[in-house]
């Protein structure tokens, strides 16, 4: 964020929280970005994470990503931003555009390239993103529980894509939004931290098991995400001895 992009209203009503591990914090401090006496770096309140529940930092990062309603129980809305992104707009304007304008409670973009879980599985294995055997177990389980290939020509499809770009999530902390987030986290905990593999299964099963309860999800085009969030690549392993928590 640049301070000029934040309105006075947002500065009064929005909590900007950054989750860091000790290695990341030390790296920032070595570059001259030190916490003040109140625990802030700029507008960001630094939350130092200790006693990690997982050894895999990718999995640890899913806790604040999916469970903001548990970490901040008094909050009504949240915007998740991966550490590789910089938001270019005021957060209240983002809530208005992605949620309030059309009455949505959860907003996430589709993937810029892939739309079928079959494609995402193949890509994860091709790039060795996780253990292939566990990916296969997860995928086989989802197929046995009813997951089918994405059909873009289906007029009754519940989602415009089965693969999200999960680096930017906007949501209201409603009962259905919270339930979906918890169920999605359960899949990450049970199988792999590659949350793009479990998004469609989680959403479709939630809708199937709760047909009488509407869940107002806005899956918008990825070009909209790119227009409001600038991408910065993660630090290289040569400069860092450990991955960032919020990867």
TrEMBL record:
This is Os11g0198100 protein. Residues 5-234 form the TOD1/MUCI70 glycosyltransferase-like domain. It comes from the Eukaryota. The lineage of its organism: Eukaryota, Viridiplantae, Streptophyta, Embryophyta, Tracheophyta.
């Amino acid at each position: 964020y640049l301070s000029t992009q934040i309105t006075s209203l947002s500065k009064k009503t929005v909590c900007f929280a950054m989750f860091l591990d000790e290695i990341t914090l030390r790296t920032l401090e070595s570059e001259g970005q030190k916490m003040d006496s109140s625990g802030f770096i700029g507008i960001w309140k630094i939350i130092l994470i200790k006693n990690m529940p997982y050894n895999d930092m990718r999995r640890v990062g899913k806790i604040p990503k999916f469970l903001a309603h548990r970490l901040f129980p008094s909050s009504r809305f949240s915007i998740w931003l991966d550490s590789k992104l910089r938001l270019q707009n005021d957060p209240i304007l983002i809530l208005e555009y992605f949620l309030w304008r059309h009455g949505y409670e959860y907003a996430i973009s589709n993937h810029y390239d892939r739309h079928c879980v079959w494609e995402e599985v193949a890509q994860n294995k091709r790039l060795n993103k996780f253990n292939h055997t566990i990916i296969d177990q997860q995928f086989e389980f989802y197929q046995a529980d009813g997951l089918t290939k994405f059909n873009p020509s289906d007029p009754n499809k519940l989602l415009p894509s089965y693969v999200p770009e999960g680096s930017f999530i906007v949501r209201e902390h409603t009962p259905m939004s919270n339930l979906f987030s918890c169920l999605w986290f359960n899949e990450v905990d049970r199988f792999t931290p590659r949350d793009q593999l479990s998004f469609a299964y989680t959403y479709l099963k939630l809708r199937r098991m709760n047909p009488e309860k509407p869940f107002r999800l806005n899956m918008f085009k990825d070009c909209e995400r790119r227009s409001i969030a600038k991408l910065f690549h993660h630090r290289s392993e040569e400069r860092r001895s450990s991955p960032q928590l919020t990867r």
